Write a sequence for this structure.
């Protein structure tokens, strides 16, 4: 109990209660914490979000304490009863979160003690908030990773849906944002499926290292009680137990890796966003997205702005910023726990929220929304194949095919390349595509050119010819589609 003159005997809480933070630290303190410091150090208004994980961790710990004979079965039952009531209070909004009690852990423990008395005070036996908070964050993050995995699957499914409808649609493929070679629009969509599949993989990999139990490390050195940490890990569905108490309470590398994986995922989203924005512009006109993902302008009546992809592109910066924040937070921290680590939560929470919202909205924007009447998804990306084809033709997208044609006729590739450069120059000056030059003109560039050159010069011929594994020929794209369908289930 604080010996502060501020706490008059009349207002002093009973010994069964833990109403203010001063009580958590006991008699050592000679003055109460200033309000400013209270606000500065308290985390309850953001870490209350961990409440479910906190209660799950406490129940697993209490069950183990009872099984090991460290607390009585009766105390265990009281703790379970108290936690059930607290769960209900939090769910119904009746729970009173107190800034004075600093964080989610002290808030819940104080309420438990209020409800069940001494049994509540025994819960913290063999435990510290240091191993408690590390456990809570891991448990919470594990759940979020599983939700993100589902969303990543959904987004991949949406991209596969769009791809399936557009295998034969020809898009000018770009390098340096200059028309390069024709590709199947589906092939382009499936490139993003590959990226998001790797993101999902990375998340699973991160999950393996998140799902390890710090509890039982206590403050930093382990504890004098005969804990059964493996049992707690099993109860919580964790894959293992942290093997060094100092490391367990202090490192937040798992949060950093998660945020790195999230950053990469957002970077992929930002690339897709950028393409959607370009493709939607009047100068391209390749695609449309549903109106509900666009906004108008307050001054220019003709505008439909791609706000959703633009915001996603912007939010990528925010998530990458969180990665920088977290990694800098960890840098130079001496072992073991330091209060710095309380700063892990807001960036982590915001990363999860931003990523989940973004994936959810992209899955719908790309693939559409399920129409219960038809059982089909409606309102996803729609494409304008004519605009794409025009753009491909304008950019001499089949110039490489003419060079390859000449190589097949026996020319060394470098010579063929040079010959085609001349042909492109001539076509440019006439304002036509290579395929629109008369045969006689083409033969002027090289006598080996024959009538069959027009197969090579057509966009479709060019596409069909790239029939190697991973290439854009529709046969290859269909094979990849089948693989993704099977993989995504
Ligand atoms: N709210 C704290 C955090 O988020 C819990 C751990 C506090 N531990 C301590 N020794 N002050 O990190």
């Amino acid at each position: 109990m604080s010996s502060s003159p501020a706490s008059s005997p009349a207002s002093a809480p009973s010994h069964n209660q833990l109403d203010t933070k001063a009580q958590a630290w006991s008699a050592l303190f000679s003055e109460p914490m200033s309000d400013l410091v209270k606000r500065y150090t308290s985390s309850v208004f953001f870490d209350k979000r961990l409440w479910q994980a906190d209660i799950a961790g406490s129940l697993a710990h209490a069950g183990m304490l009872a099984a090991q004979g460290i607390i009585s079965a009766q105390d265990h039952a009281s703790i379970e009863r108290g936690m059930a009531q607290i769960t209900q209070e939090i769910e119904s909004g009746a729970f009173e979160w107190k800034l004075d009690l600093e964080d989610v852990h002290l808030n819940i423990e104080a309420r438990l003690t209020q409800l069940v008395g001494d049994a509540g005070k025994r819960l913290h036996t063999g435990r510290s908030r240091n191993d408690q908070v590390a456990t809570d964050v891991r448990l919470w993050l594990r759940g979020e990773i599983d939700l993100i995995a589902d969303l990543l699957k959904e987004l991949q499914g949406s991209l596969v849906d769009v791809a399936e409808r557009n295998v034969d649609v020809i898009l000018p493929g770009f390098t340096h944002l200059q028309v390069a070679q024709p590709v199947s629009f589906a092939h382009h969509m499936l490139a993003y499926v590959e990226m998001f599949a790797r993101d999902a993989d990375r998340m699973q990999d991160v999950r393996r290292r998140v799902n390890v139990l710090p509890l039982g490390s206590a403050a930093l050195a382990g504890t004098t009680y005969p804990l059964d940490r493996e049992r707690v890990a099993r109860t919580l569905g964790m894959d293992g137990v942290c093997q060094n108490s100092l490391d367990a309470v202090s490192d937040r590398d798992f949060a950093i890796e998660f945020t790195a994986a999230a950053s990469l995922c957002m970077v992929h989203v930002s690339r897709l966003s950028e393409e959607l924005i370009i493709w939607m512009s009047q100068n391209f006109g390749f695609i449309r997205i549903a109106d509900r993902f666009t906004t108008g302008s307050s001054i220019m009546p003709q505008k439909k702005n791609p706000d959703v992809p633009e915001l996603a592109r912007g939010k990528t910066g925010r998530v990458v910023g969180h990665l920088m924040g977290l990694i800098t937070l960890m840098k130079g921290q001496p072992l073991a726990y330091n209060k710095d680590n309380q700063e892990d939560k807001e960036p982590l929470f915001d990363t999860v929220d931003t990523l989940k919202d973004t994936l959810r909205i992209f899955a719908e924007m790309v693939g559409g929304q399920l129409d219960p009447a038809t059982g089909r998804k409606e309102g996803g990306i729609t494409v304008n194949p004519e605009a794409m084809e025009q753009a491909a033709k304008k950019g001499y997208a089949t110039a490489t095919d003419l060079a390859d044609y000449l190589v097949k006729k026996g020319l060394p590739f470098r010579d063929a390349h040079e010959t085609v450069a001349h042909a492109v120059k001539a076509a440019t000056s006439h304002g036509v595509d290579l395929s629109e030059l008369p045969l006689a003109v083409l033969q002027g560039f090289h006598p080996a050119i024959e009538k069959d050159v027009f197969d090579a010069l057509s966009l479709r011929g060019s596409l069909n010819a790239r029939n190697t594994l991973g290439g854009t020929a529709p046969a290859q794209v269909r094979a990849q589609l089948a693989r993704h369908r099977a993989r995504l289930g």
